[in-house]
Amino acid sequence: MIDLTETESELVNQLLDILEEAIDSLSEIDESYANKTKIQKLLYFAIDEFEIPVTHSWYLAGAVVPDQSIGPDALQTADGPTGPSSPSVPETDSEDATGNVSTVDPILFTDSSRPEFDSEPSSDLETYVSRSDLLSFYRQEIPDLWHERTMRFLQNFYQETAPDEYRLLYIESTHLRTHLADLVDAIDAFIEGRTPERSIASVRESIGLSISDLHYYIGRHDGLSQTLDIVVEGTNLIEDAVIRLDQHSTADLTPEHRSAIERLQDFFYYYVWKYPCLLISANTASGSQADHLRAEQLAAFEEFDDRVLDERSTISADLASVDLLPAPGDYEPIDDSVLAERLHDLSTQYLE
């Protein structure tokens, strides 16, 4: 991702300063519950409400500002964001999580239909909103979101703010990530001798349906359909691993199986899902550095298919080492009448 400009960094620093003051002023709010998603959502609300100019685009977890340091720690640092040149979320980031769901990019969004600025915007936040008005705004908004669960927040966020052409795709990506997290929870339960909230068979079915929907939403979009073959290569590996996991005796599940599924979570989010998201980012870039961001994302896209396939090979070897790749005879035969019924159900769903 591109660096924030000096002006953008100064504006975000001022927003974080006022946000921290607002949090400190609310006795019912425990700052220890702050996480990246909450901080980013609150920044988004102010940027959107008061039209504060910051470069952004829709990316892995929605609309993003290219600065990975915007999070809870930024509330306690005088310098705030640093504007690094690395991706908005490091590929090893596991910070802000609900259960075992890894965090997501900074959640920021402003209307991409807004005009570009002819000259450098002011770095004084009070050009856009007074400190007192922003404090009042935050004191009203903070209590409503502080106890929201991360993945539920994301689904609501996409439903309310995602561009129409990408809304269902983003929602479905969140469903799939949630199901993969449920799978990790189920493995944990069996290892610890507990009964999981959802059986592996149930989660497997949900994963299959989510993947089918994801394929559908990508394939029907003219601007993203070129990514479908690579996405299918990646999701086929996920489905294969889940099929084989479901065939294991639950008494034989080990921490190694858990770790393998966690690697699949990362593989989906940072490789399979990222591939179409690079195009989405290029298509939705807005702000003073939109052209730079667009060019950067398109350049990354041109070579990212090879990265997905290379990582797929690495993950395949990891899965094979813990017996999570099915042999040809491990696939369940599907009766023709059952297959016809499933296809009818899917076609009916998509035509509604």
Can you give a write-up of this model?
The protein is mostly helical and 352 residues long. It has 2 domains: 6-149, no CATH class; 163-351. Helix content is 58%, strand content 2%. The protein has 11 helices and 2 strands. The chain has helices spanning 6-25, 36-50, 131-145, 150-161, 167-191, 200-219, 228-247, 255-272, 274-284, 290-321, 336-351; strands spanning 57-59, 62-64. The chain has a two-stranded antiparallel sheet. β1 and β2 form a beta hairpin. α1 crosses α3 and α5 (167-191) runs antiparallel to α8 (255-272). The longest helix is centred in the C-terminal third of the chain and has 32 residues, at 290-321. The radius of gyration is 22 Å and the shape is globular. The relative contact order is 0.12. Residues 77-117 have low confidence and may be disordered.
Total number of beta strands: 2
Percent helix range: 55-70%
What distance lies between the first and last C-alpha atoms, to the nearest angstrom? 38 Å
Structural class: mainly alpha
Computed CA radius of gyration, to the nearest angstrom: 22 Å
On the 0-100 scale, what is the average pLDDT?
Answer: 82
Question: Strands across the major sheet, in which order?
Answer: 1-2
The major pleated sheet works out as: 2 strands, antiparallel
The poorly predicted ranges are: 77-117
Number of structural units classed as domains: 2
Q: Approximately what portion of the residues adopt beta-strand conformation?
A: under 5%
Dominant shape: globular
Order of helices and strands: HHEEHHHHHHHHH
Tally of helical segments: 11
